[in-house]
Design goal:
Layout (H helix, E strand, L loop, with lengths): L1 H38 L15 E2 L23 E4 L4 E8 L6 E8 L7 E2 L7 E7 L7 E12 L5 E14 L3
Parallel strand pairs: 2-8
Antiparallel strand pairs: 1-6, 3-6, 4-5, 4-7, 7-8
Length: about 170
């Protein structure tokens, strides 16, 4: 009878230890499981998708002599002039057809923090050909800053570049 009592006490202590150990283990593992589930990247509205404004475009950009499969060529842009009151800048934000990646274009005017235009991805052989301009853009010289971000087909961020050029607004007649 006495041995039976000791056995019951032993089992009770053993069960309590197993319960406490299980709770501690659960508390240690639960944050890892939560992190794992939350960190899985699901397609979201923030995901970059193909730009619907992009049209087929034959570019005069020549394919580089050395064009590796894992490289991307970004177009260059020169100074431009428009007449006062022009509402849209006619420019080909083009991804050359020989490229092995997609490009996202972000266009800024002068030192503004918010862009004039932020495209979705432009696939090779296509271009977005207009950038909306603010109403009442003053006559004179303005700086256009253009960010070009490269993406693979599975939306992995590749290289990128930033360039700038001068936009001159001429007095209208």
């Amino acid at each position: 009878m006495r041995n039976n009592m000791k056995m019951k006490q032993f089992l009770k202590k053993y069960q309590t230890r197993i319960l406490i150990g299980s709770i501690i283990l659960l508390l240690l593992v639960l944050p890892l499981i939560t992190y794992s589930l939350l960190s899985k990247k699901e397609p979201s509205e923030e995901a970059v998708k193909e730009d619907k404004r992009a049209i087929s475009y034959k570019s005069a950009i020549k394919k580089p002599i050395i064009s590796e499969k894992d490289t991307i060529t970004f177009p260059g842009y020169g100074n431009m002039s428009i007449l006062e009151g022009t509402e849209k800048l006619a420019i080909a934000l083009v991804n050359p057809s020989f490229n092995h990646g997609n490009i996202q274009f972000i266009v800024y005017l002068d030192d503004e923090k918010s862009p004039l235009l932020k495209t979705d991805i432009v696939i090779p052989g296509k271009a977005v050909t207009e950038v909306p301009l603010p109403k009442g853009l003053s006559v004179g010289k303005h700086k256009i800053k253009l960010e070009m971000l490269g993406f693979s087909d599975n939306q992995t961020r590749l290289s990128g570049t930033t360039t700038s050029f001068e936009l001159t607004v001429l007095k209208g007649e």
